[in-house]
Amino acid sequence: MAHAIEQEIDLDVVREMLSHLKPRDFQEAQELILAALQEINEHFGYVSLPAAELVAEHLDTTVNRVYGLLTFYADFRTQPRGRHFMLLCNGMSCYVMGAQRLAQELKDRWGIEDGETTADGELTVQIANVCLGVCDKAPVVELDHDSHGDLTVERLNEVLQRAIAAGGGWAAHGGHEDGHGANDHHSR
Ligand code: FES
Question: What CATH number has the domain spanning 84-170?
């Protein structure tokens, strides 16, 4: 049974982040919206509604516009992440090589589908409908920023069990996002 973890974003930290963004005019403010959202998303793992409201207020735009951007780009989340965060590639090569079997295993064994978190808060999965750039290893997942390829259902379970047993998680990597930034919009 999947659920969202209760975890608040410290709005004082968001205010501090935003205080470094000082747009000179309206146009520049618009251009900084994505940068602000990326910083919050990377630090906390998601952007809550109150955090989005602060961004809108600071950059002189509407909450609707900020929320529109949040839901347009695949890397942004509006719900907290679990301790471990996994992108499951569903690009063409991975699809052909069995990504759907992995997704089915996540559903059957771990009880989670795209965007969901396990009930114990350990694992969030997001399905990426864009290539993660390592097709020769398809099917591929990226777990806490490490790539794992040539995955069978058994190997996927092993990788997940090992990561969970080891602790750590995406935030232990500094909450840092790598290359698949806010340029990859949802294709669903
Ligand atoms: S399609 Fe999955 S890595 Fe390229």
Answer: 3.40.30.10
